[in-house]
Amino acid sequence: MSHINKPDYAGGSIVNLMSSIASALGADATDVPQSKLLPANQLSSARNIIFIVVDGLGYNYLTSYGKDSIFTDNLQGSLTSVFPTTTASAITSYFTCLTPLQHGLTGWYMYLKEMNDIVTVLPFKPRGSPVWKRLDKRYQEVLYNFQSVFDMIKVPSYIVTQKNIVDSVYSLAVSGNADRLAYQELEEMFVQIKNTISLPDDQKFIYSYWSGFDAVSHHYGSRSTEALSTFRAFENSFDKFIRDIKGTNSTVIVSADHGFIDTEPSRVIRLEDHPDLQDTLVLPLCGEPRVIYCYVDDTKKVQFENYIKKEFADYCQMYKSEELVRQGYFGTGKPCPGFADRIGDYVLIMKENYVLKDTLPTEQPFTQIGVHGGLSDDELYVPLIKFEV
């Protein structure tokens, strides 16, 4: 296998950070080691542990564009995300203290053999469905077959998240016994956290999620002026928040689920432009535009491999899916039931800032400037920031 970046599940990834937090809050030991940068014994004395996930905030972005920010003054170092570097996989690792191999959410588009359909795992609907409808409830237990970290810890817990997702099927599946609190604007998020800090619990855990930076980065690019102004707005609000909660015996941790890489039209490869490749596939593309799971006709695997080697050599690296599992890219531990069915026969990991996309007849083609899912430094590494107030 030629060299590509790899998540560090042995103590340097976001899953290990969650293991430290859970252990500090009384959870039984899991088979995921604690974070080397932030072991549990550095957390257990805080009355409030507040964990804020800034969707899309990469370590390289922070150290390039936030050199003079409050965050770099409290930067502990970098962590790797999980593989693939995407919200569905990474946030689920935060919510479960499991690697993607164990929790089984392998990307935005995932083939679920149990229902013979491709689903979008966060909104929980069939891919290409013209109606934004929730899938049948019986499939929720198949897809979300794990224990929530909020049911493992021994203190009251709270989730502060956006109003449009606070009661989603996914949120309900991963939130366990936590109280869910909604907000709409960024300032309201910090108000909710402050109000929760003031509750009389002996010790508590507050998890908060903000997707504003991710949304702007997808649309305009992570290196855009729009993304930078969004980051600055978050920084200013956060700075005020930290000053407001001084003296509350709180440890505030800030990290992310993934970083970003920006692409351009010339780097977007359309499957429809490669009919001979399309002919080898038995399902639409799954996973992410930067990490693609290919389900290949058994009689056309040689044709598939030859086409990728000849036509896509500059665009991607090709791996048999089982090889990436064996090498530990998806994580350690026992695979969830049916994991192999969720990653196809081959995985294409895009090089540089290339993406590969297909469009179903029921879908409108769309492009994003900021993308993630792959294993570039910009996508894989996220910051670990800690404040004690």
3D structure, described in words:
The protein has 389 residues and is α/β, with parallel strands linked by helices. It folds into 2 domains: 14-262 and 375-388, Alkaline Phosphatase, subunit A (3-Layer(aba) Sandwich); 265-369, Gyrase A, domain 2, CATH 3.30.1360. Helices cover 29% and strands 21% of the residues. The chain is built from 14 helices and 18 strands. A 7-stranded mixed sheet has the order 2-18-9-1-8-6-7. It has a 4-stranded antiparallel sheet with strand order 12-13-15-14. It has a 3-stranded antiparallel sheet with strand order 3-4-5, with no helix packed on it. β4 and β5 (125-126) form a beta hairpin. α8 (186-197) runs parallel beside α10. The mean pLDDT is 94.
What is the rounded distance between the termini? 46 Å
Name the CATH superfamily assignment of the largest domain: Alkaline Phosphatase, subunit A
Largest sheet: 7 strands, mixed
Q: Which fold does the CATH topology of the largest domain refer to?
A: Alkaline Phosphatase, subunit A
Give a brief description.
With 389 residues, the protein is α/β, with parallel strands linked by helices. The chain is built from 14 helices and 18 strands.
List the helices and strands and how they pair.
Blueprint: H1 14-24, E1 48-54, H2 59-65, H3 70-73, E2 75-80, H4 87-96, H5 100-103, E3 109-112, E4 117-120, E5 125-126, H6 140-143, E6 157-162, H7 169-174, E7 179-183, H8 186-197, E8 204-210, H9 212-220, H10 225-244, E9 250-255, E10 261-262, E11 268-270, H11 275-278, E12 286-287, E13 291-294, H12 301-311, E14 316-320, H13 321-326, E15 346-350, E16 355-357, E17 370-371, H14 377-380, E18 381-388
Helix pairs in contact: 1-4, 8-10, 9-10
